[in-house]
Amino acid sequence: MLILAALIGLAHADYPPEVRNEFIVGCAQSPDLQGHCECTLDALQKEVPYSRYLEADTTIRAGGVDVEFQQAMVKSSAS
Prior knowledge:
Blueprint (H helix, E strand, L loop, with lengths): L1 H10 L5 H11 L6 H14 L2 H12 L5 H12 L1
């Protein structure tokens, strides 16, 4: 049971600082949006495990679309 709890905790742990910074810089096109972007990322990392975030990031950078991730972003942004 403790192992399962640890795995669940790891799945929803904070994203690495460099990933957080890159997300916020990419999101906040103006300084007044930085707080919104930080809140969005905080909500997103509660819903999307880091490994899934990396998959979506790779897909998006390659020009693809990740509908499931986009839906999670919208949900997180509204939180």
